[in-house]
């Protein structure tokens, strides 16, 4: 092989970096005349907390809904572990390992903590009791619920059979996070998880997020709370007018820079 050929073959071989777990290219979504997503891109890397920030109406929720199957984009591609996916419902995304903790939580207040953890995925007793009589395997579900909550340091909740309506806001959020961490095998998405919480409860939820990250699950955090974002995020995706305009490292930018980029007052870094 000549020197020239060697040089060509070297430059032609791309250097393989880590591959995003979840990514999107060119997502578009219109609601009538409103363009909610305008060629939006997205990348979530393994093991990171990625914050998504943007002004009201920038399209953050629509982006997240597209990633978790709650909205079907008009165009664009979404990939999980490098393979294209076409989720038609949040259930399909959940089956693929993407769990979302919504702002309104989607917990059932009258049900117990254990029942909420297993909502929609109830375990049946083995054998005919479960197969034919559809009896629930309550003891296994309670044991697993207890294990999951202890793992995440949430066992300040004393009684797993306590109804969710009797819990504090932070404890409820904890149950929702525990559910997402228990079943989200690939990605956990959290939409404004601290918006309705007090200082102490917010702190607990931020610690929970760091716990989930330490256990290897990447998190997408949508938040308007800059101190929280800067405290936990490894990278910050800035969304503006329906698209990603920058991804910044919180160590390299101040909160006011991030807000200025987000609102258009400062040019996004190239
Ligand atoms: N179901 C819908 N029907 C019509 N318009 C919608 C719908 N969902 C979102 N939009 C519009 O799409 C745009 C983006 O909304 P989106 O909720 O994604 O923004 P956001 O960045 O999450 O805002 P916020 O921070 O205020 O929650 C907005 O102009 C919004 O009014």
Secondary structure: helix percent: 25-40%
CATH classification class of the domain at 19-106 and 187-263: Alpha Beta
CATH topology of the domain at 19-106 and 187-263: Rossmann fold
Number of helices: 10
Bound heterogens, unique: adenosine-5'-triphosphate
Uncertain segments: 1-9
Q: Give the percentage of residues in beta strands.
A: 15-25%
Pfam family, one: ABC_tran
Domain ABC transporter: 22-266
Protein name: Sugar ABC transporter ATP-binding protein
GO molecular function: ATP binding
Gist?
The protein is of the alpha/beta class and 270 residues long. 35% of the residues lie in helices and 23% in strands. This is Sugar ABC transporter ATP-binding protein.
Describe this structure in words.
This protein is α/β, with parallel strands linked by helices. It has a domain at 19-106 and 187-263: Rossmann fold. It has 10 helices and 10 strands. A 6-stranded mixed sheet has the order 6-7-8-3-9-10, sandwiched between helices. A 4-stranded antiparallel sheet has the order 2-1-4-5, with helices on one face. Mean pLDDT is 85; it is low at 1-9. Residues 31, 34, 36, 54, 56-62 line the site of adenosine-5'-triphosphate. The site of adenosine-5'-triphosphate has 11 residues, from strand 2 and helix 2. GO terms for molecular function: ATP binding. Residues 22-266 form the ABC transporter domain. It comes from Devosia yakushimensis.
């Amino acid at each position: 092989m000549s020197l020239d050929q060697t040089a060509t073959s070297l430059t032609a071989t791309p250097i393989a970096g880590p591959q995003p777990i979840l990514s999107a290219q060119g997502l578009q979504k219109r609601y009538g005349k409103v363009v909610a997503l305008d060629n939006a891109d997205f990348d979530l890397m393994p093991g990171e907390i990625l914050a998504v920030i943007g002004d009201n109406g920038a399209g953050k929720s629509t982006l997240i809904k597209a990633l978790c199957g709650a909205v079907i984009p008009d165009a664009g591609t979404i990939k999980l572990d490098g393979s294209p996916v076409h989720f038609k419902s949040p259930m399909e995304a959940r089956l693929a390992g993407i769990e979302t903790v919504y702002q309104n939580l989607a917990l059932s207040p009258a049900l117990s903590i254990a029942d909420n953890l297993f909502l929609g995925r109830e375990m049946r007793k083995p054998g005919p009791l479960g197969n034919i009589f559809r009896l629930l395997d309550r003891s296994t579900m309670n044991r697993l619920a207890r294990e999951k909550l202890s793992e995440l340091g949430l066992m300040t909740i004393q009684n797993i059979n306590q109804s969710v309506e009797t819990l504090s806001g932070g404890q409820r959020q904890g149950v929702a996070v525990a559910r997402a961490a228990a079943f989200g095998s690939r990605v956990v998405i959290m939409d404004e998880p601290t918006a309705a919480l007090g200082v102490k409860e917010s702190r607990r939820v931020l610690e929970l997020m760091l716990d989930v990250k330490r256990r290897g699950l990447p998190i997408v955090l949508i938040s308007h709370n800059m101190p929280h974002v800067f405290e936990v995020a490894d990278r910050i995706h800035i969304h503006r007018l329906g698209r990603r305009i920058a991804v910044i490292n919180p160590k390299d930018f101040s909160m006011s820079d991030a807000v200025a980029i987000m609102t258009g007052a400062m040019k996004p870094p190239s």
